[in-house]
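Morning!

This is the sequence you dropped in the shared folder:
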Amino acid sequence: MKTLIILRHGKSSWEYDTRDFDRPLSDRGIKNASEMGSFILSKTGTPDIILSSDANRALSTAKLAAESMGFPAEKIETDHELYLASVREILKSIAKLPDDHRSCVVVGHNPGLTYLVNHFGVQLDNLPTASAACFEFNTDTWKEISPDNAVFKWSKLAREL
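The structure's back. Tokens below.
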């Protein structure tokens, strides 16, 4: 079995005149990322791996959530291909994970993450910032996760924390 937690980055700040890739988290985004990390820990335990977009707001979310999950921030793996990625690109990044990792939190951006949740069979209009969805897959390899072997486990909106 493989467990995938899909986590959208926290709310970003528009306070600074910076390019999209470099936008930081807002105060609310920081708070929500930590809270969602605690929630994920309570539901699924500490993940084997965290895979994040390298954009500032996504990587900051990953680090804050990791701290709340007891996952070492220095072990977070980043993949630039996750920045504003399509479902296909996200699945390609996940497929590269070592199969000895049973659980993964992937941190990225919309619309790709909302489309990924929909791809696995849960119809969402929007996965809000700092919100998460969890799926289990009846497979031993990350290359084989698909809608055919996906089982929806839970979702949590940041505003519900």
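Headline: The mean pLDDT is 97.

More detail when I'm at my desk.
O.
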